[in-house]
Q: What sequence folds into this?
């Protein structure tokens, strides 16, 4: 008998009918002899509807109240799933994040989990109940206010619960049936992976793969929780994220997959005087505006003692970052702030590249042959990323996928839905 | 400076626009220098929509989960009102019933308040915030599960908070602008009352008046909380429910108003053998089925040593009560169970009838003149109620209202809406 944590996203719960299907799966898992804990996101459109209502009464709603409002969504879905389970012959209790012992920082809208003490969940399991826990929420340690966890919050709730309960697996359900060697909608012969080590999944998530959120993968890696990515529309086993690349014998290390990202923009500050402190001032200004940045590049200064600093960030934050940086212009004496939101990022991920020195060369050659120009290169031990024109992204993904022979024989199965 | 508790019902909150109007009133009350605590019901149709969703996944949903589900409604409305208040320049925090210290029994769907310890509300007021508290809910003292309070739950939450906070007044807002001498939709010259003592309001509520729930009036009476019934659509002062009939000098005691009730049915068990225990068995059977009963009549037995027992109950419970009683037929050896759901109840309420002996006579004469036949009479110290044919209810109400000269000169103002 195992302890299984399952997480269902909003699209898996978008109607009474889908809720009943999900309940069937949960009851089947329980009847197979497992202890089952389920984390549900809010139903399909609920969160958006609540956001619309909020906007009607206040265009800039206070964050504490936004968290009180949005958490109603998960309360509703978890109670309904518990009811559906009860209609199908098993017993279930639903809990809010607070009741389940999810304790967080007090940053409304983007709280971090400090600790999980799920005694009411454990008690429910001991009494033979299935426990439903509202995802995406917790209670602030200091203020005792209700908080929401920001992006990937429900996945993180599920993994954190699995860690605290010492679960055997954390299954993340959506409308995709696993992690693929590339997005199957772009690459028809993309292959579903059976397993992926944590570090590679981290790189894939950071490089644009939307299957799992970076945060939940990092949490799983730190606590050794195996994650299984499965579809709520089929019984396929999915992809298991587990293990470290350190455990893979060097000769067996592989190239795992290709990720792409259309959501970034590029900012270059040109002619930055090459003296200590300039880069610090630039990045502090961006950080103070609460903007996250991704790739950073600075090359050597030219003969005039000036250099260019380039970084990428999400397009949504582009205009704000530009205006913050413009304000520094006179003070720092740089030439200009250039903004480019037609870039795309494509990445190759695999532990194998540590032991195969020709990978970078093959990568660049494949792009060149496909007529794709590389504008920026950024690498880690197990990842190569390049910035290119976004219009060429699909070609680039296919070229690299072919060059590294990642494709399989079966046609990839693509379900309706946008991939969450 | 006063401490004011305000309660807004679902129809006052049915849209973003209504929510903004309500927020205006709350902010105005605060800006006049008062401490303000607000209890909101769920928005208009929310509770019904949630009930429909529940029914789709389980026709007989577990009660614990129903409470988890329904309480989402009040969470949403209170958070939205807090946001609307913030948009209008005041500060507000919303709290669940649990966070506000509303501790209850663990009877899901019909919990009773055991205690209210509103320390977080007091703290909010001390910091200058307006406190919103979700109505209709609390937390069970023993299980720590979330509970809902049953009918009149939001009114009861508001009065209980007012009592715990020692508030100066508890204002109950709906779409009617006060307590009238009779339903203005039936009696055009019905007069709005300025004040009504607690005992009379209790009788009016028990006799069919839907303005306030019996429970909340009793709570207010016990703790001496003045209740003001007002409309959320106007600035009229409304009706204040306060004081005891004992404080009214005997000569000034009046007849206050006429209430009517279409929601009851009548059951008569005929030919009950007149021996000890028969009535007890009958009423125990009904009580065990968790059915509340209203008026009870048993007259002296006939020469054959048999009598009829009659009682009234809500129509919704009629069929169930009949079937429970039919099962006793052979055992108790009564003749038949007669069921009549075309009855109406009309009541005259007023402390004055204690000191004016002709009231019962005038009451019966007025009905007789209007051609209304009295089937059953039931009285208390300050109330006369009769059961008549429901088709004659409107005529009966008008006849009594005229006979006791309760009407005023102004035409009663009736707002759109069904009276809550």
A:
């Amino acid at each position: 008998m195992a302890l299984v944590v399952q997480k269902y996203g909003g699209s898996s719960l978008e109607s009474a009918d889908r809720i009943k299907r999900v309940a069937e799966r949960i009851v089947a898992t329980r009847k197979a002899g497992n202890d089952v804990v389920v984390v549900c996101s809010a139903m399909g459109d609920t969160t958006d509807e609540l956001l619309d209502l909020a906007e009607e009464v206040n265009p800039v709603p206070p964050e504490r109240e936004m968290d009180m409002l949005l958490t109603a969504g998960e309360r509703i879905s978890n109670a309904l799933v518990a009811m559906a389970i009860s209609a199908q012959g098993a017993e279930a209790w639903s809990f809010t994040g607070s009741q389940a012992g999810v304790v967080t920082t007090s940053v409304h809208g983007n709280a971090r989990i400090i600790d999980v003490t799920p005694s009411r969940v454990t008690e429910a399991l001991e009494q033979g109940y299935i426990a439903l826990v509202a995802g995406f929420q917790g209670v602030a340690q200091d203020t005792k206010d209700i908080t929401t966890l920001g992006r990937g919050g429900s996945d993180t709730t599920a993994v954190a619960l699995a860690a605290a309960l010492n679960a055997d697996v954390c299954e993340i359900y959506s409308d995709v049936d696993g992690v693929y060697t590339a997005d199957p909608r772009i690459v028809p012969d993309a292959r579903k992976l059976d397993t992926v080590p944590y570090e590679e999944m981290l790189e894939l998530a950071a490089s644009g793969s939307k299957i799992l959120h970076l945060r939940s993968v990092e949490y799983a890696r730190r606590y050794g929780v195996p994650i299984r990515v499965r579809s709520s529309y089929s019984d396929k086993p999915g992809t298991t994220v587990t293990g470290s690349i350190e455990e893979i014998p060097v000769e067996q290390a592989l190239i795992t997959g290709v990720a792409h990202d259309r959501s970034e923009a590029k900012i270059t500050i040109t002619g930055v005087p090459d003296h200590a402190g300039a880069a610090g001032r630039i990045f502090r200004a961006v950080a103070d505006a609460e903007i996250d940045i991704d790739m950073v590049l600075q090359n050597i200064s030219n003969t005039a003692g000036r250099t260019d600093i380039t970084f990428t960030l999400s397009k949504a934050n582009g205009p704000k970052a530009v205006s913050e940086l413009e304000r520094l212009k006179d003070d720092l004496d740089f030439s200009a702030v250039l903004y480019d939101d037609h870039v795309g990022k494509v990445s190759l991920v695999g532990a194998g590249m540590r032991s195969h020195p020709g990978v970078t060369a093959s990568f660049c050659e494949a792009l060149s042959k496909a007529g794709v120009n590389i504008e920026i290169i950024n690498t880690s031990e197990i990842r190569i990323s390049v910035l290119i024109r976004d219009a060429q992204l699909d070609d680039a993904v296919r070229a690299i996928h072919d060059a590294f022979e990642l494709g399989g024989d079966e046609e990839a199965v693509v379900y309706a839905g946008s991939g969450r």
